Amino acid sequence: MIKSAKRLNVFSEYIFSRLQKKVKAVEAKSKKKVLDFGAGNPDVKPSFFYLKKFDEFLTDGKSHLYPGFGANNEFSQALINWYKKRFKVNLKESEVFPLLGAKDGVSHLPLALLDPDDEVLVPDPGYPAYTDTALMVGGRVVYYNPEKLIDVKISKKTKFMWVNFPSNPTGQVISLEQLDKLVKFAKKHNLIIAYDNAYSEITFDNYIAPSILQIPGAKNIAIELGSFSKTFSFAGFRMGWIVGNSKVITALAKVKSQMDSGLSTPLQKLGAFALNHPDKKWHQQMIKSYQQRRDIIANYLKQLGLTFTLPKGSLYIWAKIPADFKDAEQFCNYLLEKKQILVTPGSAFGKSGKQSIRISICTNIDQIENYF
């Protein structure tokens, strides 16, 4: 008899894996394709400018070889230059490391930072992977309200804190003044901040997302995750980065040396090229597409009795369900079965989301009027 590891019992199946099973069942029964507002899959096609260059990198004579661990010089310098230009932040090579997507960092940081029974602070509502990956290694998760960043429960076991703005799932954003208070709080309590800035380049209504590393002294206690998936619509390529505190990065690099063989050379070259040669026209068109869809989807959501504030960043609308539904699960099942519309129950992102849902704005809405 084959027995799986006991650690599988401390976390549930990933929410979007479960939802896709429901979608298949509903489509088979209704004979109608589900309008999918579930997973946030960046769907704007990457710039042809980048894809054409990627072809060159793939056909290079050495592209098939192992890339080596860590960033090559080309990738490091491009990211260092980008941070200098975008955020006015100075980085060293020891403060830069490539990831196989930002989720790579989310999943492996607990291995690098947590001993069994150590505590990690996680936003509620927040990205589910912050919780489940900590539980896998025997860590303890302590939830906090992301609107009250410095009103959290600190103990002798608290090791680090996940912070995510623009937020998945709420679209909430943050100011430099708020980040300054957070950094001072973290220094006071000797707390590491893991700042997930994956949506920094997807913002609306003239909002510009900051980096936590803009705060003086932040590198003493903070690391920051970034994503090529959102910034350049390279989601399927699995490319990201971590920058900041060199000791944390060294610890993560040691873990990853046992987990993978590094980000491939063609992808590092693509990342460096994209960072060094921003296609501003393409980026503006991408933001315009998401913002137009955000506004159109919002108008339809109001017909369902949902209440919400338009997000200034990320790819999601966080909405409160109508009062005549018991909870988000019931409302989501109603939409899926009666209208063939998929949204994500807020409870997937924490206990505080029981009366809310998350709606992804990166989906094809050409036929949206046929569902409402």
Main traits of this protein?
single chain, 372 residues, alpha/beta, Aspartate Aminotransferase, domain 1, Aspartate Aminotransferase, domain 2, 2 domains, seven-stranded mixed β-sheet, four-stranded antiparallel β-sheet, 11 helices, 13 strands
Our estimate of the beta-strand percent is 5-15%
* CATH fold category name of the largest domain: Aspartate Aminotransferase, domain 2
Order of helices and strands: HEHHEHEHEEHEEHEHHHEEHEEE
In CATH, the homologous superfamily of the largest domain goes by the name Type I PLP-dependent aspartate aminotransferase-like (Major domain)
Rounded to the nearest angstrom, the distance between the terminal CA atoms is 50 Å
Largest sheet: 7 strands, mixed
CATH class of the largest domain: Alpha Beta
What structural category do the secondary elements indicate? alpha/beta
Number of helices: 11
Radius of gyration: 21 Å
Silhouette:
globular
**Helix amount, in percent?**
25-40%
Strand order, sheet with most strands: 2-8-7-6-5-3-4
